[in-house]
Amino acid sequence: ADNFGIQEALKTLGVDEVNDGTFSGKEHWASGDPITSVSPVNAEEIASVKTTTREDYEKAIGQAQEAFQYWRSLPAPQRGEIVRQFGNKLREYKAPLGKLVSYEMGKSYQEGLGEVQEMIDICDFAVGLSRQLYGLTIKSERPMHAMQEQWHPLGIVGIISAFNFPVAVWAWNTAVALVCGDVTVWKPSEKTPLTGIASQNILADVLRDNDMPEGISTLVTGDYTVGEMMTKDNRVPLVSATGSIRMGKIVGQTVASRLGKTILELGGNNAIIVTPEADLNMTLMGAVFGAVGTAGQRCTSTRRLIVHEDIYDKVKESLVSAYKQIKIGNPLDENNHVGPVIDKDAVNNYLKALDKAKEEGGNIIVEGGVLEGEGFESGCYVKPAIVEAENHFEIVQEETFAPILYLIKYKGNVDDALALQNGVKQGLSSAIMSNNMRETQRFLSEAGSDCGIANVNIGTSGAEIGGAFGGEKETGGGRESGSDAWKAYMRRQTNTINYGSELPLAQGIKFDI
Ligand code: UN1
Fold first, then answer.
1. Ligand 1 pocket test target in 263, 302, 461 with most atoms within 8 Å of CB
2. By its UniProt entry, which Pfam families does this protein fall under (predicted)?
3. Residue 45 known to be catalytic
4. Which atom of ligand 1 is closest in space to residue 301's alpha carbon?
5. What is the pLDDT of residues 323-357, one digit of tens each?
6. Which atom of ligand 1 is nearest to the CA of 297?
7. What is the DSSP string of 390-444?
8. Which residue's CA is the closest to the ligand 1 atom numbered 6?
């Protein structure tokens, strides 16, 4: 009856009551009409959260601007020390926060824990980074001159995150931005405000324990209109947004019109190429987890499986029998693989996509449908489906945030498969299953995958935080998380220093007075 300990988890995180928004702490600026968070697991109202008004927003930004004056001049390793403590606090709260992610968003508890683990990992990465914000020294063309490049903090980083990774994506941005000397203002998805509040509270506690000024990490809540306040605001030099291509185009254009910076992490249409030389067991594991994990609601979810004709029937058969083993149900119950999709709108989009696929000539080989009856009362549980389809179908060209896998046959060689894989507007994640080095290297070459992520003998989802995360084309082009993604959170400054007693001009220009 206690639903796998969720009540206790909510209490531990301080988000356990439906009310008028007493969660409006000082670093959560919100006095507007409350939104209620409803769990897709059982349609229960978990709690209400007040939203950010224009006035609240002004206060939040004012405080963030002030906090930035302090934070930017704190030595970077000291900022790293605070992020280290944040990572430790997340270790303490891993179980309840993972549970809340699962309950508010619907992914399996294991995946909820995995998401919190990503937060912990990025904190560790950022702590190291805090001593590695390296610039360059450059040889000058002039005698007695030195050149260098340094990286300075930008200011306020606006973060707009999606429901599907309600906390990890914020942490990728925040942990890195904080060690870079920026302050952050976060608008989580209005579908998952409680994970937002819980995460913000954990970080705010750490900042308070270290006697930091308020406003280093701020939460604002509400719908796109609150996001718009940030995208139109010159005081927010960088907006990092995750979500649909439709949303990303609006955010990108709005921020660009004021010549601000963006990091956009938008839709994917990720494919796995399965060549005749693939390990079929690995293929099966990678494809099934990629397609049904998080109920198909990852940006990196596997949408398309591009299989060579020689092994097509075999792959199809084993997929169909693997899908029979998938258990759908309460994601807090660790026996289940797949939980609900986020809401009824998502269910409708899933149903419409299946209809459209059929209309366009697709052949459904694993039937979809909405589950009913005991345990499925929320109406958000759908069956993972597989459709034999062609790459040019309109519906295959689109990203549907649901567990639908399109099975596509290719003839010829790996270049033929690549043409299909690259033949979509999105460019986030891609994979090849093959033990043939010529095929895999071709896939990784400049003539290969056009995506930001290209994997060999691994599925399309589940990227580690150490790499830069993001994609090309309509995926938006931004990079978050590891590698040198931190550079997007800083401004570059080139310095030329003359330590001689002459003033020679560059390019040998003569100018005598
Ligand atoms: C997303 O879906 O927005 O690679 C992020 C993955 C996760 C992150 C996905 N590490 O699937």
1. 461
2. Aldedh (PF00171)
3. no
4. 11
5. 999 999 999 999 999 999 999 999 999 999 999 99
6. 2
7. -TTSHHHHS--SSSEEEEEEE-SSHHHHHHHHH-SSEESEEEEE-S-HHHHHHHH
8. 462
